[in-house]
Amino acid sequence: MIIDTFGRSHTYLRISLTDNCNLRCFYCMPEENYTFTPASRLMQTEEIEALAKIFVANGVDKVRLTGGEPLVRKDAGEIIAALSKLPASLTLTTNATRLHEFADTLQEAGVRSLNISLDTLQAQKFMMLTRRDQFRQVRDNIDLMIGRGFHVKVNAVIMKGLNDNEINDFVEWTRDTPVHVRFIEFMPFSGNRWASNKVVTLHEILATVQQQFTITPLAGDQHDTAKAFSIPGHLGTFAVISTMSTPFCSGCNRMRLTADGKLKNCLFSREETDLLTPLRKGDDVLPLILQNIAGKKKELGGQFTEDFQHLHPEDIDNRSMITIGG
Question: Tell me, what's the pLDDT at 222?
C-alpha cells in the first residue's frame, strides 16, 4: 500500500496523457498560443502501462485518464486498451468533443463512467469560454454516452458573474436526464486569473438551488471529493466539489501523474517527483513513489487554508491546470 504520514492510503491514480487540448478555456490554459510539451518528453504508451502496473501492484484500484484533453492524443485508444487489462477500474475525464470517435473503444475497454467538462448550457457562452465552436458536438456526445449506458458526470466550474446564473439550469437538466452535475468551486492555478471574489462557495450554490428545488443529501464515501444531493422526481443528481470553502483533504486517496512523468501528491503541491527519467534508465521507481507520498502535506498542498478570501494567487507556486491534468 502507498500510505502517507497521516495514514491516508492512496488507491486512486490520475494519469495525464497530454497537456494538449482542442479547447482554450481561460481558467485551464493560460494563453491561446500555448507551447505544448514535445512528444519526446511525454510518457509513451509502454511507459504509461509500466508505471500504472507499479501503482496497481501497490494498492491502486482506480485509474483515471486526464489531459489536457486525453482523446486528442494519437495513441489514446492504444493506452485505453492497455490499461483496461489491469485489475483496476478505468475511467476518463474529457471535454467530450471527440467522444463519438471513441465510444466503441471505451465500451470495449470496460469503461463505465465518464467525467465531462461543461461550464455552460448556452452555446454563445461556450464559444466565449472555450474560444471554440464545439457546443453542439459536446451536447450530442453527452446524449450519445448516456444512451449507451455510461454513468455521465458533468463538471462545471462556477464563477461569479460568468455562469453562476446557470446553476439552476444545470439542476433542471437532471430532471429528465440521468446526468450527474458536479459544481466545482473556482481554484487558483498558474495563469488562470483566479480571484477570491469569483469563487461561488458550496453554501452559495446550495442556497441558489434551494430557491427552486427541495434537496436531499446523499450518503458519501470517505474518499469523495463531492457532496452529492438528490431532488425528488429527478433522474439525475447534483453535487458540489468544495475545494476552497470546505476542503476534503482528510480522506484524500489521490495521486497525479503528469503527462511528462512527474508525480504530484496533491493538486496544489509545489513538489514533484520525476518518475519517467529513472524509469527510462531502468531504475526502481517504487521508492521514489513512496518517498513522494510520504512528503504529502495535511491539506491543500500546504499552500493555503480554507480561509481563501485572503489568498493572493501570486503566492501559489504550482503549474497551470492543463499541465497538471486535473
Answer: 81
Share of the chain above pLDDT 90, in %: 72
- The answer, yes or no, to whether residue 147 has pLDDT greater than 80, is yes
Averaged pLDDT score across all residues of the chain: 90
Angle between helices 45-57 and 286-294 (to 10 degrees): 60
Instruction: Report which DSSP code applies to 232.
Output: T
User: Environment class of residue 46 by beta-carbon count within 10 Å: exposed (0-12), middle (13-18) or buried (19+)?
Assistant: exposed
**What separation in angstroms does the CA of 322 have from each of 31, 68, 144, 167?**
11, 5, 26, 25
The H or E element containing residue 91 is strand 89-94
Distance CA 134, CA 127 (A): 8
**CATH code of the region 12-324:** 3.20.20.70
Domain map (residue ranges) of the chain = 12-324
pTM for the full predicted model: 0.91
- Alpha-carbon gap, residue 22 to 68, rounded angstroms: 8
**Measured between alpha carbons, how far is 197 from 185 in angstroms, rounded to an integer?**
11
Grid cell 512528444 in the structure block, residue: 39
Judge residue 284's burial from the number of C-beta atoms within 10 Å of its C-beta, 0-12 exposed, 13-18 middle, 19 or more buried.
exposed
